[in-house]
Amino acid sequence: MASQLDGVLSQLGTGKWNLVHFTALAYCVSLPCYHTLAGPFLAPKVDYQCLPGSSDPSVPLASHITTQDSCSYYVKDPSREEPLERPCKRWSFDNSTFVSTVTSEFGLVCGMEYLRAAYTSIYMLGVMVGAPFNGFLADKYGRRPTITIGSVVYAVVALASCWLPSLVSVLISRFLLGTLHATILKTGYILAMEVSSPRVRPVLGIVLFLPWALGTMAWGGAAYLLRSWRWLQLSVSLLFLFFLPALLLLDESPRWLAVRGYHTHALAVLQRAARWNRVALPPRHRLLQIIKDSQDEGNASSQGRGLRPCRSQSLLDTYLCQMFILLRTPRLRVITLGMFFDYLVVGMVYFGLSLSGDHLSSNPFLYMVLTGLVEVPAYTLMVPVVTNYGRRSTTIVFFLFSGVMLLLLPFIPNGCGWVAVTLALVGKMSISSAFQVLTLYSSELFPTEVRTRGTSTAFMMSRVGSMTSPFITELLGSTSSWTPSVVFGVASLLAGVVSMVLPETGDTSLPDTIKQLEERGTVEGYRKLLWVMAADVSSGWPCGRRGEAASREPALLNSTHLPTHSLHATHIPFHPLHPVYPSAHSNDPPAYCSFEPINSRHSIPASTHTSTPSALPADDEKSPTV
């Protein structure tokens, strides 16, 4: 499938049809960043002072009120020597930086500071909840309808949230925006990849991240010009209206149409692209045959992967069965847990540094612009670095370097704020590079038959990390200014150490099955760690009684389906077929349930080709949509 459709896309080249899609989708990808990074400007930390006495501002302060602090005031009581302390219910907020904010309008002070962190965190929660539904909708109903409906609903919710009267309704709107985040960002990214030729995919995969960096810089500039939170949110929400007309120019993904059996529609899209690009494609009957063959080969690939579906009457059992697949064998377990921790840390540190402008700099607007600026080299320089030095080593270096920069922050004197900002920005650039490398690295580490599940679940861990970052910066930072940088720095160092147990994928073929992954040789230095993690994860389910699966290993190794081909990292085409999973009720353990943890009896020779960062997942799986 991949070679035939990619051959047609190669014939199309990169012309006007492709550029229209790239431009529109790049603009689309940049839009969610404003609401994702809204916290520093819409709900910032603002200085305040208690206003004691009547709730009516026209009533002067009573003479019996004595000294006060920010959250309480004291009232003289003739019958007592000590004055009575009363909680403050009204405050005067400093408006020298911001005219109005969520903080000042809803009084998020004096024990309510956690709601400022929740304002940002609830958006990330929405992203984590909505991402799986986005993947289902994009695969079932198509990329273009998903982007269209998601963009329209996102624009409506964003515009409506500018006039909501209560904090509860504002938080609900933030959650809804988060659920639509992946609909715009991930589906737009996937569609751009699927309409591009194989030659430009690696470069395009990096270029499409630049609009996020540019949007971050624009967000800092817009916040500088508009200091009222409602008008600022309205201005960036109106940007969605400029994208809606571009939806009329977008076509559905020809690859998705071919896989889903919409042959005539796929043919029409390819012919339209040929007219726009002014190139000649094969005759109509030949092109239609290529499209039909693509669907047949994709279905055959789906049926021959050797995994059986989970069949259970309980939805929870089915979910656990699918999740435990990533933990059943020693090397896959190491990869899964390593990726989970790396993604957790990279999400926490990346968003933590992005949201720390009011803690690290006296000018949060300039800080936001600079954080977007440093992401440009982080994205553009990643391709040659990863190609020349591999995935594993660059991941380790980026994590360790970011950790060192952040751990130096507490030692910077108070009068050297520019030094602290410089260290934070260098750390942000390094962690942004690590984020990019992990996106590629995870897609190559997991075998084809579980690649979608592995990469999607791992990426979801980054959302868990991003949900915690506002509480680290706001709550821990309010008690001690150096605590967030220490937490982020130590976490980055630990992620670098954890990455050392992961294998290099730069010059090797991508594993198609878990069996292939387990049969590959293991570096001597990691054998003890693998032995520790080699035990069955359960005494009865999903791998059967402890030791029972191991006793069947020789027969299982001989009977497990092993494809005769291997995907290489230079070309990972897209195919939105649903993976199939092993049965939860099978009496026999799955064929990949137990393997020798260390001394592999077989090895797969490394490819002699040099890997290039690929923008698409494997041929027989869905793209990660989390």
UniProtKB/TrEMBL annotation:
<feature type="domain" description="Major facilitator superfamily (MFS) profile">
    <location>
        <begin position="55"/>
        <end position="507"/>
    </location>
</feature>
<feature type="transmembrane region" description="Helical">
    <location>
        <begin position="117"/>
        <end position="137"/>
    </location>
</feature>
<feature type="region of interest" description="Disordered">
    <location>
        <begin position="603"/>
        <end position="626"/>
    </location>
</feature>
<feature type="transmembrane region" description="Helical">
    <location>
        <begin position="149"/>
        <end position="166"/>
    </location>
</feature>
<dbReference type="InterPro" id="IPR005828">
    <property type="entry name" value="MFS_sugar_transport-like"/>
</dbReference>
<feature type="transmembrane region" description="Helical">
    <location>
        <begin position="365"/>
        <end position="386"/>
    </location>
</feature>
<feature type="transmembrane region" description="Helical">
    <location>
        <begin position="393"/>
        <end position="412"/>
    </location>
</feature>
<dbReference type="GO" id="GO:0016020">
    <property type="term" value="C:membrane"/>
</dbReference>
<dbReference type="GO" id="GO:0022857">
    <property type="term" value="F:transmembrane transporter activity"/>
</dbReference>
<keyword id="KW-1133">Transmembrane helix</keyword>
<feature type="compositionally biased region" description="Polar residues">
    <location>
        <begin position="603"/>
        <end position="614"/>
    </location>
</feature>
<dbReference type="InterPro" id="IPR036259">
    <property type="entry name" value="MFS_trans_sf"/>
</dbReference>
<keyword id="KW-0812">Transmembrane</keyword>
<dbReference type="InterPro" id="IPR020846">
    <property type="entry name" value="MFS_dom"/>
</dbReference>
<feature type="transmembrane region" description="Helical">
    <location>
        <begin position="332"/>
        <end position="353"/>
    </location>
</feature>
<protein>
    <recommendedName>
        <fullName>Major facilitator superfamily (MFS) profile domain-containing protein</fullName>
    </recommendedName>
</protein>
<feature type="transmembrane region" description="Helical">
    <location>
        <begin position="203"/>
        <end position="225"/>
    </location>
</feature>
<dbReference type="Pfam" id="PF00083">
    <property type="entry name" value="Sugar_tr"/>
</dbReference>
<feature type="transmembrane region" description="Helical">
    <location>
        <begin position="172"/>
        <end position="191"/>
    </location>
</feature>
<keyword id="KW-0472">Membrane</keyword>
<feature type="transmembrane region" description="Helical">
    <location>
        <begin position="231"/>
        <end position="250"/>
    </location>
</feature>
